[in-house]
């Protein structure tokens, strides 16, 4: 079921929807709604009387959904512009859809093997999407404008994005920023799959990680580079010293080789950060703080209603600023609490677990969630379904890992194959496990 969602999310360009449903008609969006309905039916089918286990991520999500509901009611009760009603309805539907896939993964992945399988398929989907981006870079064409699926209609055109003379690749995503953000979430998961073979060959193991890393390097997106830096920082912090030094050296050498092979790319990336203070895209973000504060003061608790702050008013290019205005302080805190809860619980469980594969997967999920959370500060993530679908599915996978590790204890260390690099690095820590350096 979750695999089918991955296919719908990554293989079908975000701009293709069922025309009668408008923006709510994306296949992945409808699949998320179906997942939410099935999850509710599954909860109703469960026998009563049992003692529910503690599931903090699911609890944090419930607080966010309640805040969204209250914000929606508040928006409908105030004098509201007619143009804001449909976007408010859509925002409510979208929140339920993303929550549906989170809950389906959280409670539907029943074993550790299921979790590992989804992580591998998740990484493969990201690798194939990255490969699409690399082909776009070589051909200097978007290519996805040639994709046509019977029954689906394009709600937006396809632009060939350039920045400082370099192609801004986007894969099947709506925008290069979305492309870079979701790949920064998936890179840690791809590295986990590469370092833990599970009987797979070298090419199958490393294809997702290598293609994702290369696509990120060529993405020409600040948010992608910041997300990549955050993901690598978390991984290097948690990996054993030997593994951290090995990967860090490979990253440094790879970056140097890429700058020599494509010198214009290196100069363009350096210019993006050196001249950031003069970049209109940066100044528009910084100028948005005062505007956001004015709107926030009008409805500080639950906001003006999720989805009701239209682009014609202002484009913040900061998901948290937009959420502060539309969802208020309660909605913003409730949303931030979901990834924070996931990372805190994963960090605690990771210190308790002794299975190397589980501890490394927990670290990889922490890195992906951290990268996604930081990336949302650089664009309006709620307007990009592929990024948010990836983010919520990652959160659901984290919840599933926490749950199944308690219900399905891991095998002894010797029962699973390990990559030689991981095994050697773990041995240097003296415990036979991957632990914080």
* H-E order: HEHHHHEEEHHHHHHHHHH
Q: Main beta sheet: strand number and arrangement?
A: 2 strands, antiparallel
Oligomeric form? single chain
Number of helices: 15
Query: Beta-sheet strand percentage?
Result: under 5%
Q: What keywords describe this structure?
A:
mainly alpha, two-stranded antiparallel sheet, disordered C terminus, 15 helices, two-stranded antiparallel ribbon, 437 residues
Structure write-up:
The chain is mostly helical. The protein has one domain. Helices cover 68% and strands 2% of the residues. The protein has 15 helices and four strands. It has helices spanning 2-11, 27-45, 56-77, 82-108, 112-139, 176-195, 202-217, 222-238, 241-261, 263-274, 280-298, 319-352, 356-375, 385-407, 420-428, and strands at 16-17, 153-154, 162-163, 166-167. A two-stranded antiparallel sheet has the order 1-2. A hairpin with a 2-residue loop joins strand 3 (162-163) and strand 4 (166-167). Helix 4 runs parallel beside helix 14, helix 6 runs antiparallel to helix 7 (202-217) and helix 8 (222-238) runs antiparallel to helix 9.
Produce a short descriptive summary.
68% of the residues lie in helices and 2% in strands. Helix 3 (56-77) runs antiparallel to helix 4, helix 8 runs antiparallel to helix 9 and helix 13 (356-375) runs antiparallel to helix 14 (385-407). The protein is mostly helical and 437 residues long.
């Amino acid at each position: 079921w979750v695999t089918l969602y991955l296919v719908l999310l990554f293989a079908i360009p975000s701009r293709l929807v069922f025309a009668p449903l408008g923006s709510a008609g994306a296949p992945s969006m409808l699949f998320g709604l179906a997942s939410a309905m099935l999850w509710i039916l599954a909860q109703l089918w469960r026998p009563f009387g049992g003692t529910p286990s503690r599931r903090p991520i699911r609890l944090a999500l419930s607080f966010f959904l309640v805040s969204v509901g209250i914000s929606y009611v508040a928006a409908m009760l105030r004098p509201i512009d007619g143009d804001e009603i449909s976007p408010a309805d859509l925002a409510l539907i979208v929140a339920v859809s993303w929550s549906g896939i989170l809950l389906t993964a959280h409670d539907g992945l029943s074993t550790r093997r299921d979790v590992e399988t989804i992580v591998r398929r998740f990484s493969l989907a990201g690798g194939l999407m990255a490969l699409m981006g690399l082909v776009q870079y070589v051909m200097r064409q978007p290519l996805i404008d040639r994709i046509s699926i019977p029954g689906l209609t394009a709600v937006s055109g396809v632009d060939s994005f350039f920045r400082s003379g370099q192609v801004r690749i986007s894969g099947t995503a709506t925008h290069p920023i979305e492309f870079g953000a979701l790949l920064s979430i998936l890179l840690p998961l791809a590295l986990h799959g590469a370092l833990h073979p599970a009987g797979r060959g070298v090419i199958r193991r490393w294809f997702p990680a290598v293609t994702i890393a290369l696509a990120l390097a060529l993405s020409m997106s600040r948010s992608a580079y910041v997300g990549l830096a955050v993901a690598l920082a978390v991984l290097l912090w948690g990996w054993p010293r030997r593994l951290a030094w090995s990967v860090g050296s490979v990253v440094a050498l790879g970056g140097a080789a890429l700058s020599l092979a494509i010198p214009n790319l290196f100069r363009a990336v350096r210019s993006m950060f050196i001249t950031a203070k003069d970049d209109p895209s940066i100044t528009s973000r910084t100028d948005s703080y005062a505007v956001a504060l004015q709107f926030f003061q009008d409805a500080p608790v639950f906001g003006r209603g999720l989805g009701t702050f239209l682009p014609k008013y202002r484009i913040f290019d900061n998901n948290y600023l937009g959420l502060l205005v539309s969802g208020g302080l309660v909605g913003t805190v409730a949303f931030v609490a979901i990834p924070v809860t996931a990372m805190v619980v994963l960090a605690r469980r990771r210190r308790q677990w002794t299975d190397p594969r589980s501890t490394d997967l927990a670290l990889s999920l922490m890195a992906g969630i951290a990268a996604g959370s930081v990336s949302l500060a650089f664009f309006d993530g709620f307007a990009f379904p592929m990024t948010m679908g990836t983010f919520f599915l990652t959160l659901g996978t984290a919840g599933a890992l926490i749950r199944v590790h308690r219900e399905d204890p891991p095998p002894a260390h010797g029962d699973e194959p390990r990559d030689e690099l991981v095994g050697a690095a773990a041995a240097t820590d003296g415990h036979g496990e991957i632990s914080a350096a």
